[in-house]
Amino acid sequence: MIEIRPAREDDRLRLAELFAAVAEERDGIATEPPVDVDARAASWTLDDMLVAVAAGRIVGLIHVEASRHGFGDIGMAVAREWRGRGVGSALLAAAIDDARAHGLHKLSLSVFAHNAAGIALYRKYAFVEEGRHVKQYRRQSGELWDAIDMGLLL
């Protein structure tokens, strides 16, 4: 059973630890290790963040940063062992509902071009490709990765 709820102040450290674990994988998010967990925990604005909780453990997060222009930028992370089990879908569906409730007209995100599972999830929720940034991200390995911009009109 997965519970989706707003992030709370006492979630900060667990959220930063999840973020650091996903960064350690070096393939799903732009941040690479090392991650200063304490600094990351202190830096987040929790107002627009939802978390997925399973068995008392935070297993995913989604953040929608609303702009003053009426759209929101999405950032999401799901613990490796919880991928493919509906966590991403539950988070994304809740974020879309929340964005609509807050009067946003669009959601946007950027995803690595090789992230087939992420792209499939976003397409499942009717996000469409809006552009591609060729060799946008320089990785610590020296590789240059493409990013695909996707959007959903609400």
Structure description:
With 154 residues, this protein is of the alpha+beta class. The protein is built from four helices and seven strands; from the N terminus they run E-H-H-E-E-E-H-E-H-E-E. A seven-stranded mixed β-sheet has the order 1-2-3-4-5-7-6. Strand 4, helix 3 and strand 5 form a beta-alpha-beta unit. It is globular.
Oligomer: single chain
Taken in chain order, the helices and strands follow as: EHHEEEHEHEE
For the sheet with most strands, the description reads: 7 strands, mixed
How much helicity do the residues have? 25-40%
Secondary-structure content class: alpha+beta
Name the average pLDDT. Answer: 97
Task: Give the low-confidence spans.
Answer: none
Distance between the termini: 28 Å
**Tally of alpha and pi helices:** 4
Rg calc = 15 Å
Strand order of the largest sheet: 1-2-3-4-5-7-6
Short description:
29% of the residues lie in helices and 36% in strands.
Salient structural properties:
single chain, 154 residues, alpha+beta, seven-stranded mixed sheet, 7 strands
